[in-house]
Amino acid sequence: MIIESHIKEGLSRAYVIAVAHKAGMNFSKPDFDYGFDGTFRDTRNYNGRYCDTGFCIDIQLKATENVVMEEDYIKYDLEVKNYNDLVLKDVGSPRILVLYVLPPEQDEWLNVSEFGTTLKNCAWWCSLKGMEPTTNSSRVRIKVPKSQLLTEVSLKSLMNKVKMGEEICNLT
């Protein structure tokens, strides 16, 4: 049996892969972990053949049930190393945090039956671009806007911003 953190990681990855594919994009995982867990990659039909466009969004993926839910925000204590990776300037691709929030009870994380498969709960995205690096020793509390649910529609919108040369910024 694998450890709980790997179960969480696998479920969160399944979620982002499903969202990417529903949005018509690829999701790639790097061979080595240098701070990012994957990349959403845009594709396009060129004369009947689908190709990678080169537009992409790097993600740091976190899966947890340890959040504070407020009316407009989700508060999460992000590890300093991950926070500082997400706020780096002079990077080639936009970077976002994807926070997959699981129910407190492990039995509720995944339900499979002949009537369907349910993966609970869902993920939100957050940009930390423009924030300053921290000197905290272990964690930084961040606020993820609840309006930034990661869906195929929101992912397409984020990728369209990248393709138009716009910044990915939080909505609220």
Automatic annotation (TrEMBL):
Record lineage: Bacteria, Bacillati, Bacillota, Bacilli, Bacillales
Residues in DUF4365 domain copies: 10-161
Protein name: DUF4365 domain-containing protein
